[in-house]
Amino acid sequence: MTDDIKRYWNAHIHDLQMTQHPIGTRAFFDDLDAYRFDKLRYLPHLVDFDGFCGQSVLEVGCGIGTDLVRFARGGARGTGVDLSETAIDLAQRNVELHGVGDRVTLRVEDGEALPFDANEFDCVYAHGVIQYAADPVRLVAECYRVLKPGGQGLFMVYNRVSWLNALSKVMRVDLEHADAPVLRKYSIPEFRALLGQAGFRDGRIIPERFPVQSRLHGGWKGALYNTCFVGTFNALPRPLVRRFGWHLMALCRK
Ligand SMILES: C[S@@+](CC[C@H](N)C(=O)[O-])C[C@H]1O[C@@H](n2cnc3c(N)ncnc32)[C@H](O)[C@@H]1O
Questions:
Q1: Ligand 1 in contact with 208 (CB < 6 A)?
Q2: Considering all CA atoms of the chain, what is the largest pairwise distance in Å, rounded to the nearest integer?
Q3: 142 lines ligand 1 (CB under 6 A)
Q4: Distance 129 CA to ligand 1 centre (A)
Q5: Dihedral (Cα; 133, 174, 247, 192), 10-degree rounding
Q6: How much of the chain, in percent, has pLDDT values that exceed 70?
Q7: Mind listing the pLDDT tens digit for each residue in 26-54?
Q8: DSSP 242
Q9: What is the pLDDT of residues 202-233, one digit of tens each?
Q10: CATH classification of 2-160+174-211+245-253, choosing from 3.100.10.10, 3.40.50.150, 2.40.50.140, 3.40.50.300?
Q11: Which among 100, 50, 53 has a CA at the least distance from the CA of 80?
């Protein structure tokens, strides 16, 4: 299974369709950063990228390194691992182009068997990774093991009971990476249990990621979504609909 997952992510760069620039150029990385932080407006509010200055941050499943660049720019010593060689090569290029190559170490590794000592990192971050892993229990247990006591775990998985999951079923539009070898969704209690089982405590799980205009989907479905759905959903009182956010962000401690 892990080989299939590696093969898939070697062939698929997350959000690649959001840029016209050649892969690996500064403009390519800047486009994907701009797209990500427009779509994930919540992220800099929940993750203090500048708050780990002088501390060690491990990102598991770092992809092309977009968030790792932010941690490193904030002064953190970053380590990024990913199963995919393509992702790690691009992440290396990304950190060098952003002038933070000296603060970041990147390695092709399996997050389910991390090659680090116990209690090594101040923060472990995995955004959009657990749900694509062969064995999420092992991956979360490894994140816990390498985190220092008192250290912060920051994780994001997809919410099964969410507007996007429901909409994709009603409109018969596949979710992104629906063709990946593994794609899981969690309810809030299931995600809480997964983290608790590894030992994480003080966990706050915050549903986020509400509808924003899509450049991904065209045709009448895309038009209906952009002209009606986004505005209507966002007009609903957020406290009422928060639990249906597509992303479940967990902020917890070892
Ligand atoms: C949807 S991408 C997310 C990338 C990045 N975290 C982001 O938010 O843009 C999922 C990533 O998880 C990685 N991944 C999946 N299983 C993994 C594992 N067991 N160990 C390390 N990385 C893994 C994939 O290679 C892929 O780069």
A1: no
A2: 52
A3: no
A4: 5
A5: -50
A6: 100
A7: 999 999 999 999 889 999 999 999 999 99
A8: G
A9: 789 999 999 988 777 777 887 888 888 888 88
A10: 3.40.50.150
A11: 100
